[in-house]
Amino acid sequence: MTGTRALVRLILRRDRVILPIWVLLLAIMPVTQISAIGGLYSTDAELQAFAASMRATPAFFALYGPLLDWHVAALGVWRAGFVPVILGLASLLTVIRHTRAEEESGRRELLGSTVLGRHAPLSAALIVVASANVIAGLIVAGSLAGTYPVAGALAAGLDYALVGIAFAAIGAVAAQLTESASGARVIGLSALGLAFLLRMAGDTTDASWLSWLSPIAWGQKLRPFADEEWWPLALFAAFIAVACYAAYALAARRDVAAGLLPPRPGPAQAAPSLAGPLALAWRLHRGLLLAWCAGFAVFGAVIGSAANAASSALRQNAQITEMLNRLGGGTDPADLFIAVLIGIFGIAVSGYAIQAALRLRTEESLARAEPLLATAVSRVGWAAGHTLFAMLGPAVVLAVTGLAVGLSYGAASGDIAAHLPATLGAALAQLPAVWTFSGLALALFGLLPRLAAAAWAVLALFLLFGQVGALLELPQVLLDLSPFSHLPTLPGGEVSATPLVAMTAIAAALTIAGLYGFRRRDVG
After folding, report:
1. Distance from C-alpha of 148 to C-alpha of 143, rounded to nearest angstrom
2. Burial tier of 373 (Cβ tally within 10 Å: 0-12, 13-18, 19+)
3. Is the dihedral of CA 451, 132, 10, 124 positive or negative?
4. pLDDT of residue 328
5. For the segment 67-91, what is each residue's pLDDT rounded down to a tens digit?
């Protein structure tokens, strides 16, 4: 453990911008949701009607979990039920970044040549991430305790903090299994997706026992503001202890930079299909692209199949329709429901776009770009392959999402021919906004490579202003910062070509600026 304190300081120094942003933004989400719901429904009768309609809609159970009470605090925490999942995502990725990614880059071995204990890097990463989650939980509890019951505020804070710490421990285990950071991320993200699907299946089917297999559900079973129960804390304590013990035990049984799962050896000679930078980019991006397509196909099918039930519930409650109109628009309840969820999918795909674009920075920082550029491959030619996936990859993922939603919704309603083109068009209409994030990440890579990760912070800010701002009645100038606020609401809304063309032009300009900057600057 020698050197842990110094590594903690190093991690805090490196993440001094992105760490406070995701902690603060995610921690204030329950307060914003409570404020928004309280502004829309001011009486107990209205809150009870809203809660009853939510309980009658399986799709909302699938997204946010079970709704346990109708009081405004319980409704707000429930409506922010997806935020602990995002905290878990940020936590496991941060742990992997400061453990496995450091080993892959060779920095861990360099630090290990000094006075540094074997377990210091893993301990430092877990300490920082666990502390960040505790701070997020304290912000949640502190912001709610002044107005609402302290027990409920404490349960909500523990929900946030413990889910994040649980997935930080999962990230620590994943970091020991493979030689590559990308492989560890795939394992960690698969575990997160499985936990969400188990929670969703347990809450929406008769197999309720499935939710007990998911750490995401354990936090909800603390029942914030709904007759709190504290015994699920024992599940968190046991799981986190076992996962951390497993991570340390596995770390002690492997060499530095090695993984416990043996890498698959490749052929002695590369196939002709790997000739050229575009083929190399396909080899590097294909796993990520296929994983996103598979995941969004599943989520799209679930949402499409639930659209009919959601439509029936919305037709019976004008207040919910009004709320969704503020978020989306249109007139048909099913279209409103699908439009809002496709908008959420578009924001998520922006994360994939940033991840694909920043693969350029990863290859450069790992010193894999320089040997290629020493050959006849040009800088622009090398970067163009990754740029292609940063632009076309989101289009493929959104197309798969639209097809999955359209097919499942059309099959449930008996009219695939009518619904499939509409949902496919609605999904692809998100592309100009998604491309702005691809362009932003590429521009930062080319012009300000040390700040390339700031693209994630910009996405988080736009998520806050663009998706919650309308409910909170924030100034229009803040709402307009989000590219998604300029998209047409489809299916069911009107389409204007001007904002779509403008955002596409902005994305193109940012991409060109990034490629030009990379062509002019030093590599490394």
Report:
1. 9
2. middle
3. negative
4. 47
5. 888 888 888 888 888 888 889 988 9
**At residue 498, does pLDDT exceed 80?**
yes
Cβ atoms of 244 and 123 closer than 8 Å = no
d(CA 396, CA 402): 10
pLDDT over 90, % of the chain: 30
133 in Cβ contact with 91 (< 8 Å): yes
Cis bond before residue 475 (omega within 30° of 0)? no
Contacts for 199 with CB less than 8 Å, ≥ 6 apart: 65, 210, 211, 214, 216, 217, 220
Q: Which two tokens stand for residue 359?
A: 């693969």
Query: Where are the alpha helices (H) located in 65-214, listed in sequence order?
Result: 72-79, 83-97, 100-105, 107-112, 120-145, 150-174, 181-204
Report the C-alpha gap between 323 and 406 in whole angstroms.
24
Q: What does the block give as tokens for 129?
A: 């991430």
Q: CA distances (Å), 383 to each of 355, 451, 511, in order? A: 14, 18, 11
Cα(394)–Cα(435) distance, rounded to whole angstroms? 8
Please state, in angstroms and rounded to a whole number, the distance separating the CA atoms of residues 192 and 172. 13
The answer to whether the beta carbons of residues 274 and 280 sit under 8 Å apart is: yes
Report how far residue 3's alpha carbon sits from residue 114's, in angstroms, rounded to the nearest whole number. 9
Residue 4: enclosing H or E segment and its boundaries? Answer: helix 4-14
> DSSP labels for 296-328?
HHHHHHHHHHHHHHHHHHHHT-HHHHHHHHHHS
Query: What pTM, to 2 d.p., does this model score?
Result: 0.78
Give how far Cα 56 sits from Cα of 116, 265, 303, Å. 56, 52, 15
Report residue 414 as tokens: 């008996």
CA atoms of 65 and 59, how far apart (whole Å): 9
Alpha helices per DSSP H over 414-524: 416-428, 431-447, 454-463, 469-472, 476-479, 497-520
| pLDDT at residue number 107 | 78
3-state helix, strand, coil in the chain (%, to 5): 75, 0, 25
Residue 161 sits at φ, ψ, to 5 deg, of: -65, -45
For residue range 367-388, list pLDDT tens digits in order. Answer: 888 888 888 888 999 999 999 9
Number of neighbours of residue 101 by Cβ within 10 angstroms:
22
The whole-number pLDDT of residue 464 equals: 67
Name the residue among 218, 348, 373, 372 with its Cα closest to residue 296: 348
The CA–CA distances, whole Å, from 406 to 279, 302, 395, 424, 481 equal 32, 11, 16, 7, 30
**Helix-helix angle 18-27:454-463, to 10 degrees:** 20
Contact 38, 472 (CB under 8 A): no
- Both tokens of 257, joined, read 């930079």
Q: How far from chain centre, in Å, is Cα 396?
A: 18
Q: What's at 466, amino acid-wise?
A: G
